[in-house]
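Is SN-glycerol-1-phosphate placement plausible here? Inputs below.
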Amino acid sequence: MNHTLPEIFSSDKSVAVLIDPEKVVNKEKLIEFVKRASFAKVSCFFIGGSTVSSTQFSEAVEVIRAHTELPLYIFPGSSEQLSKEVDGLLYLSLLSGRNPEYLIGQHVKAALQIEALQIPIFPTAYLLIDGGTKSSVAYVSQTQPIPQDQTAIAYSTALAGKQLGFQLIYLDAGSGAKDPVPVEMIASIRSIGLPLIVGGGIRTIDGIRSAHEAGANVVVVGNKLEEDVDFLLDLSSYLAVGIRL
Ligand code: 1GP
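Reply from A.M.:
I modeled the complex. Tokens:
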């Protein structure tokens, strides 16, 4: 039941803005943020978080949907983070870990609901990479991330994901990571030939550019924009100019 991947996942310079509903201060601030990000012409929004309740999630989806034309994809932290009002679901399986709950358990819980929603689903091989701090994903999923210098393990894990039929690979150093995913690892995983999403601890335009140049199709920015909404201005210029001169 695979769906055709939208173009932003094969572009060589997409930027996704991650909204974690748990960190939303209030509705007005969220509306303003969504409008500004849309004006900056970011590629899309991701929504989700490790510990978001279903109510927080639905309320945030409703607000985002009402104030942007940009695509909105679910980046789920659990089987409770689902909605019909989105453009698709990154159907994550935490392949870097060995906790069956996040490899298949949550999926079994959500399967009937996802079927009923009839939203596009994009099976995503999700690899958590050590970001130099204990990430909420590692804590909640009770899994170990792949060490930064273990590119060969990351490669084999992502390759197994491709062989199993996943459509996308997501390398995540975790929200607020001290060290983003290394460019050598990005380049190695890119050679597998699946569209690649990279995020976690990316806080500068140089960091975004490096990830794109190493082969990331989509770079995800979350924390930086929560702390500094004016970073959207830099993002907007970067996206307008392009990386390949
Ligand atoms: C986390 O990849 C995302 O899952 C984004 O991370 O919040 O550190 O940008 P940041």
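Short version: Residues 7-237 form a domain with the TIM Barrel fold (CATH 3.20.20.390).
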